[in-house]
Amino acid sequence: MRRLLVALGLIASTCGAFAQEFELPTLRGSDAFVPAAPVIYSRWDGFYVGAQLGYGFSQHDFRTSTSTLVAHALRELALEAEVGVSNWQVLGRVDTRGASGGGFFGYNIGWESVILGVELNYSRGNFVADAPIEPITRVTAAGGNTYLVTVTGGASMRITDFATLRSRAGFEVYGFLPYATIGVAVGRADVSRTATVSGQENPNAVCPSPGPPPCTPFSFTETESKTGAFIYGWSFGGGFDVFVLPQVFLRAEYEYIAFSPLWDIKANIQTVRAALGFKF
């Protein structure tokens, strides 16, 4: 009996191994037939609009703003041709700050987590700067005469509003959208400048003098002003958006705008902003 049980066990194990060798591959699961997951589009896609508040720091460089005025006033004189009085810098630089408010409108396109877009951003502000004045007085010679020359002047700039058209590139991370921007800028400004060149020709002579060399006082002043002048430049910045409701997001960002010189006055604005936006 014992020998019979052993023989039956050997036959059973042999049949099991034999069956495994002939198992069809098509019976080994069905993973290859699972359909692909549906494409999920980013909720940042599409148009959006918003309102913003900001605080900015503006820098104004007036150092060369009197140059063309002085050059024009002295254009026929040896004093300008030989000495270059127009290159004397009598104004300085100044920084100002102020609040701003405005809005934005844009469109996003998403590729998985990468978000690209374009945006128009507008701010209304009041960045006012008056140039520091440091008059220069020198004794110089030109055209065979001696001159006692004093150059002074003044300038101001008030940037009333500015807008940027910028491209955006961001990367969505757990509902946050960090992004960077670069674009072009346009603004409006009220600008004025004035320059005065005064002094005496041959100041060591008795003034008034009856004979040569005569002591001749002189004074030249030129002034320009313009309201609502357009200024142009470029911008870059960065920030992040985050959804707080299905179609409502908050924003925090920084933007730097550099304007091309207007009447030799250079200006730039750095702004930090907080915003509330709505995506359609």
What does it look like?
This protein is mostly beta strands. It is 12% helix and 61% strand. It has 3 helices and 9 strands. Strands 1-2-3-5-6-7-8-9 form an 8-stranded antiparallel beta barrel. The longest helix is centred in the N-terminal third of the chain and has 20 residues, at 2-21. It is rod-shaped, with a radius of gyration of 38 Å. The N and C termini lie far apart (85 Å). 29% of the residues are buried. Residues 1-8 and 10-30 have low confidence and may be disordered.
Question: What is the number of strand segments?
Answer: 9
Low-confidence stretches: 1-8, 10-30
Distance between the termini: 85 Å
Order of helices and strands: HEHHEEEEEEEE
Strand content: over 45%
The portion of residues assigned to helices is: 10-25%
Structural class: mainly beta
Categorize the overall geometry.
rod-shaped
Task: Please give a handful of descriptors for the protein shown.
280 residues; mainly beta; 9 strands; 61% strand
Quick summary:
With 280 residues, the chain is mainly beta.
